[in-house]
Design a protein that fits this description.
The complex is a heterodimer of chains A (about 240) and B (about 325). In chain A, β7, α6 and β8 form a beta-alpha-beta unit. In chain A, α3 crosses α4, α3 packs parallel to α5 and α4 packs across α5. Chain A has two domains: about 160 residues, Rossmann fold, CATH 3.40.50.300; about 70 residues, no CATH class. In chain A, about 35% of the residues lie in helices and about 25% in strands. Chain A has about 240 residues and is α/β, with parallel strands linked by helices. With about 325 residues, chain B is mainly alpha-helical. Chain B folds into two domains: about 180 residues, no CATH class; about 100 residues, Alpha-Beta Plaits (2-Layer Sandwich), CATH 3.30.70. Chain B contains ten helices and three strands. In chain B, strands 1-3-2 form a three-stranded antiparallel β-sheet. In chain B, α2 runs antiparallel to α7 and α2 packs across α10. The longest helix of chain B has about 40 residues. Classes of the chains: A alpha/beta (about 240), B mainly alpha (about 325). Chains A and B meet through α2, α3, α4 and α6 of A and α1 and α8 of B.
C-alpha cells in the first residue's frame, strides 16, 4: 500500500498535507496522533470512502485515488475494515454478519459453506458459541471480535482498523490486538489507528505519527521514541 | 482463543456453482426485498394506495380512450355512407330508376338496396333498437339505398339530388347531417388531448409518490446501506432490493387496479346491454382483460422504474 504526495482538503482546511509512505505485506503498523490529526481521513482514503484532493493512493495494485464509483466495491473487498463502532448489521446474527462479508465478494460460495467458514472465523476470535446471537445480544468486545472476524474472513490483502479498542476495556483490547497481530503474520498489511498509548508502547511496531495532517514521524518497529503528545492525549 | 487457520475453498462443479450463484442472487435480491417490503409495509401503504388509485384511473381513462378511438373509426367509416330512405309504397320501377341514376353517377362508389326486412335485422344488432321494433305492430325501419360516396365533400350534393326523387321519403329523405362528422372529430380530438394530459399527470404523480416512498426506505435503512457499501457489497446488491421493492409495490398496485378496471368494465358492459346505448364501442370482455394486464404491467414498470430513479438519485456510491 502506498501514499504518494497525498493531500486531502475539506474546504480550505487541510486534513492531510502531502503525505507519502508505503506499507509492506505482513506489517502491523500503528497510526497515531491527536484528535483531528487526520487519522480517520487517512483510513478513509485507503477504503475509497474519500478521494485525495491531490496525490496518489495505491492499494494492492489498485489506484484508489482515481477509482470509478462502479469499481469501489472491488477495492473494498480487498480491504478488511474494523470500525470503532463495529458496524454490524443489526438484523443479522453474528454468524450471518461474518458470512455476509464473505458472500458479498463471491456469490459462488454457497450459504452452507459461507456459514461454516463464518463459524470457523468466529471460533478463531473466540466466539464459536455465539454465532446465533444478534449484535444487541453481544457485549462491545464481542461485537468488535465479530467485526474482526468479518474483516478477516475474506483474507484481505489490507486490513485497516479505526480505534478498534476505543470502546473496550484493556483485557478485551489486548485480545483484539492479539487477533490483529495474528492476521498480520499471514501476510496481511494491518494498519491500526489508535489513541491507546499502552498498546502502542508495548507492541513496539512501526508507528506513523500524524499531527495537523502532516506525517511528522515514521518510527520503525522496535522502538517507540518520544510520545509525549500521545501520553497527554490519553490522560 | 483459537488460532487462525488458512481457509481452503473447494472447487464446485459448474452446475452446482450456477445453482449457488442463482440461489444467492435470489436470496439477496428478491427474498431480501420481499422481507424488507413486509417489514416496511406501514411506510409503503400510502404509496401503494395512491398508486392503486392512480393506476385504476389510468386504466379507466385508457379504456375510455380506446372506446373513443373506436367511435372515431366507426364515424369516419360511416361518414361517406349515405342512407337514402325509400318512401313506403314506392314502386319498384321508381326505386330501380333511382338506383340506376345513382350507380351511374361518377361521384358514387357503390349503391346497395336494403329492404325493410334487412333494415329490421340490422337494427336488431344495435343495442336498444330491438325494443323499439317490438313496441310497434309493423316494421318501423324504412328500406333504403346505401350509397357509398367517393369523397365526403360530395355528400351534400348527392343528398340534395335525391331529396326530390319520387322514390324517396319526403319527410326523412336521407341520413345526411351537414357538419356532424366534423363536429364529432373536433369533440374526439378535444377529449383525446384532455385524456393524454390527464394520463401524463397521473403518471407523474405515480412516479413522484413511488420515488418519495423509496427515498423514505433508503433513509430509514441508511446505516444498513452504509455498512453494506463499506464491506464491499456490489452496487446491484445494495440498489437491487430497493428496485425490487418498488416493483413489488407497483405489481400489487397494478394487480389491484387491474382487477378493479376489469370488474368495472364488466359491470359497465352488463349494464349497457340493457339500455338503448352501447356501453363503449369495441370494449368487450377480452379488451377489459387485456386492459387489466396492461395496468398490471404498467404498475410493475412504474414501480421499478421510479425506484431506479430514486435509488440513482438518493443512494450514494
Amino acid at each position: 500500500m502506498e501514499f504518494s504526495g497525498v493531500t486531502r482538503a475539506y474546504g480550505t482546511r487541510l486534513a492531510l498535507d502531502d503525505v507519502s509512505l508505503s506499507l509492506e505485506p505482513g506489517e502491523l503498523t500503528f497510526l497515531v496522533g491527536p484528535s483531528g490529526a487526520g487519522k480517520t481521513t487517512f483510513l478513509k482514503l485507503i477504503n475509497r470512502e474519500l478521494r485525495p484532493t491531490k496525490g496518489e493512493v495505491w492499494v494492492d495494485g489498485i489506484a484508489a485515488h482515481s477509482l470509478k464509483a462502479s469499481h469501489v466495491a472491488d477495492l473494498r473487498r480487498r480491504v478488511g475494515v474494523v470500525f470503532q463502532d463495529y458496524k454490524l448489521l443489526p438484523r443479522l446474527t453474528a454468524k450471518e454478519n461474518v458470512a455476509f462479508g464473505l458472500q458479498v465478494g463471491d456469490l459462488r460460495i454457497s450459504n452452507g459453506e459461507a456459514m461454516d467458514r463464518a463459524l470457523d472465523a468466529l471460533e478463531a476470535v473466540g466466539l464459536g458459541d455465539r454465532g446465533g446471537s444478534f449484535p444487541h445480544q453481544l457485549s462491545g468486545g464481542q461485537q468488535q471480535r465479530v467485526a474482526v472476524a468479518r474483516a478477516m474472513i475474506t483474507q484481505p490483502r489490507v486490513l485497516i482498523a479505526d480505534e478498534p479498542t476505543g470502546n473496550l476495556d484493556m483485557e478485551i483490547a489486548w485480545q483484539i490486538m492479539a487477533l490483529l497481530e495474528n492476521i498480520a503474520t499471514f501476510g496481511t498489511t494491518v494498519l491500526v489507528a489508535t489513541h491507546n498509548v499502552e498498546i502502542v508502547r508495548r507492541l513496539q511496531r512501526r508507528i506513523l505519527t500524524l499531527v495537523e495532517g502532516r506525517l511528522v514521524r515514521d518510527q520503525p518497529a522496535g522502538g517507540i521514541g518520544r510520545m509525549a503528545w500521545l501520553a497527554s492525549a490519553s490522560s | 482463543m483459537a488460532g487462525l487457520g488458512i481457509i481452503v475453498k473447494n472447487a464446485l462443479p459448474r452446475a452446482a456453482m450456477a445453482r449457488t450463484v442463482v440461489g444467492n442472487t435470489f436470496r439477496y435480491l428478491l427474498f431480501g426485498a420481499a422481507r424488507n417490503w413486509f417489514r416496511n409495509i406501514g411506510s409503503i401503504a400510502p404509496a401503494l394506495g395512491s398508486m392503486t388509485l392512480l393506476l385504476l384511473m389510468a386504466g379507466v381513462a385508457g379504456l375510455a380512450g380506446f372506446a373513443i378511438s373506436n367511435l372515431e373509426h366507426v364515424e369516419s367509416a360511416q361518414a361517406s355512407l349515405l342512407h337514402v330512405y325509400i318512401r313506403d309504397g314506392a314502386s319498384s320501377g321508381d326505386i330501380l330508376s333511382l338506383w340506376h341514376r345513382l350507380a351511374a353517377d361518377p361521384r358514387v362508389a357503390s349503391v346497395v338496396i336494403v329492404t325493410k326486412q334487412e333494415a329490421l335485422q340490422r337494427a336488431e344488432s344495435i343495442p336498444g333498437l330491438p325494443q323499439i321494433a317490438s313496441a310497434s305492430e309493423s316494421n318501423p325501419f324504412p328500406a333504403s339505398l346505401d350509397v357509398q360516396v367517393k369523397t365526403i365533400n360530395d355528400m351534400a350534393a348527392i343528398a340534395t339530388m335525391v331529396r326530390t326523387d319520387t322514390a324517396v321519403d319526403p319527410v326523412n329523405p336521407s341520413s345526411y347531417d351537414q357538419g356532424a362528422y366534423q363536429r364529432i372529430q373536433t369533440v374526439i380530438f378535444g377529449i383525446a388531448v384532455v385524456g393524454l394530459v390527464f394520463l401524463a399527470v397521473l403518471a407523474f404523480v405515480a412516479v413522484a409518490v413511488t420515488i418519495n416512498s423509496v427515498r423514505a426506505a433508503i433513509h430509514s435503512r441508511r446505516d444498513e446501506v452504509t455498512i453494506m457499501q463499506l464491506v464491499g457489497a456490489p452496487r446491484w446488491m445494495v440498489r437491487g432490493p430497493f428496485v425490487v421493492e418498488g416493483a413489488i409495490t407497483g405489481a400489487l398496485a397494478g394487480a389491484a387496479a387491474g382487477l378493479a378496471t376489469f370488474g368495472l368494465t364488466l359491470a359497465g358492459i352488463s349494464a349497457g346491454a340493457g339500455t338503448f346505448t352501447s356501453f363503449a364501442p369495441g370494449v368487450t370482455v377480452s379488451v377489459a382483460a387485456i386492459a387489466a394486464v396492461i395496468v398490471l404491467a404498467t404498475g410493475v414498470g412504474l414501480g421499478s422504474g421510479s425506484s431506479l430513479v430514486s435509488v440513482r438519485r438518493h443512494l450514494e456510491s
